[in-house]
Amino acid sequence: MKDKSWKPKRVGGDSSSTSSGVPVIELSIRSAECKATLESIIREIEGVRLKDSQDAAVPALVIMELEDNPEDTFSLIREMGKLNKGTEIFLTASRLDSVMLLEAMRAGAKEFLAQPVQKQEVVDAIRRFLDRVAAHVGKGAGQRKSGKILAFFGGKGGVGTTSIAVNVAAAINKLPSNPSVALVDVNQHGGDLPLYLDLQPNHSFRDIATDLSRLDHAFLIRILTKTELGIQVLPSGYDDLSTGRLSPDCVEATLRLLQANFDYVILDCGHVLDLTTKKALELATLILVTSTLMVPVVHRTKRILELLRGSGFPPNKIRLVMNRFLTAEQDVLKETEEILKQKAFWLFPNDYPSASQAVNSGKPLIDVAPRSAVAKSYRDIASSFDDQAAQQAGKGSLVGWLNPFKGRKVQSSPSGA
Ligand SMILES: Nc1ncnc2c1ncn2[C@@H]1O[C@H](COP(=O)(O)OP(=O)(O)OP(=O)(O)O)[C@@H](O)[C@H]1O
Ligand SMILES: [Mg+2]
User: Fold this and answer.
1) How far is the CA of 305 from the centre of ligand 2 (A)?
2) How close is the Cα of 160 to the center of ligand 1, in Å?
3) CA 66, 72, 78, 79 torsion-angle sign
4) φ and ψ at 383, to 5 degrees?
């Protein structure tokens, strides 16, 4: 029998829960006994639902267990609070002294459930939570995010895909609207993205692939590497020399969760079109195929564009970006666009000294050479994405993103080279 003694006020809208509007609860708990007890208590409470493995929506409530190192739990609570202001966190532990309790509350934990958990305490805490949810309906709290996935795919190796992905992520992160940004390396044939940000990450896609059933919001946020810039990075953990492969299922589950947590998810997809990359491109809001005007690159980019069009990707979801462009090459560009049957959406100027200085220092070019034309170009493309996102905010449609005329803007800044 469900506990019907307390009826929640109607929770409308598409909250951080599900499309049905019922707040979803995620349990991030290692202790099997505590988890089972909480599950059985929560199943009896009307007006909430336990998260199932298929659910990518951000939970309205996460009940997490204090880790061996409490500071890890507190920083995770702070991080989750920053990303999803509508998500509440309850903490459970077998013991917690008053100093730690204060620290947990400061980090953002709303309630504390002492173990072994008592049914009445859990029911009361969840009632208070539902009261707060009901009070916030219509005030924007708990709104489910659906971030934009921008997938950068190289027409050929070495054209600058990683440089562009890193700098666009860094530039979006600095926009006045202060969006949250995740930068993800889906390149399993040479995932070297961490080097571009001088990172030595402890976690990668491999941690998710090891046991996909462990993947939930708390796990995902725990394994992301937070950079000084504020961007959160998920490296691929695979390259040409490593064993194992990144599966399309793993990429799909991860990207859906990231999309629910971040305003922007920027993907470095490398230049190999395999099933895993294809899955990432399917989930992307925009596919930005990177090329240069070099003949072998144009040749392969043409094949890539044909393959994508032939695989049923909507043509207006595919954008062509030209890297290392020189203003003297206007005629070559025109000819190339005819060969590729696609106008360039963006032109990034050639600036080898700034680009290599950035790579060698492990910092984004926009920080290393902020006054360069190429840095301006990265900032401009970032603003153009945010403008389109702002136009579409509230409309719940991708039309503006997919309309090639609305979004088309060619930045032909002089290369300076
Ligand atoms: N706008 C630019 N102007 C000049 N050089 C650039 C520019 N962008 C990137 N580069 C340089 O091009 C080289 C390749 O860049 P990057 O590693 O980003 O390419 P990639 O396509 O990701 O390569 P890979 O196929 O190895 O993953 C680097 O030396 C980088 O500094
Ligand atoms: Mg690369």
Assistant:
1) 19
2) 3
3) negative
4) -65, -35
Spatial CA neighbour of 235 closest among 273, 283, 197:
197
pLDDT single digits (tens) 242-294? 777 899 999 999 999 999 899 999 999 999 999 999 999 999 999 999 999 99
Residues linked to residue 287 through DSSP beta bridges, in sequence order: 151, 318
Q: What does the pLDDT look like over 48-65, one tens digit per residue?
A: 999 887 777 788 999 999
Tell how far the Cα of 89 is from the centroid of ligand 1, in angstroms: 42
Topology of the domain covering 24-136: Rossmann fold (3.40.50)
* Any ligand 1 atom below 6 A from CB of 159: yes
161 lines ligand 1 (CB under 6 A): yes
Please indicate whether residue 59, judged by its CB atom, sits closer than 6 Å to ligand 1. Answer: no
- Domain parsing of the chain, residue ranges: 24-136, 148-407
Could you tell me if the CB of 359 is within 6 A of ligand 1?
A: yes
Do 172 and 386 form a contact (C-beta atoms < 8 A)?
yes
Instruction: Check for a shared fold between 24-136 and 148-407.
Output: yes
Measured from the CA of 351, which atom of ligand 1 is nearest? 3
- For 337, the token pair is 């666009």
Region 135-147: mean pLDDT is 62
Q: Which helix (H) or strand (E) holds 323?
A: strand 318-325
Q: Of 2-6, 26-30, 156-160, 258-262, which gets the smallest average pLDDT?
A: 2-6
Q: Is 142 left (phi over 0), alpha (psi -120 to 50) or beta?
A: left
148-407 maps to CATH 3.90.1030.10: no
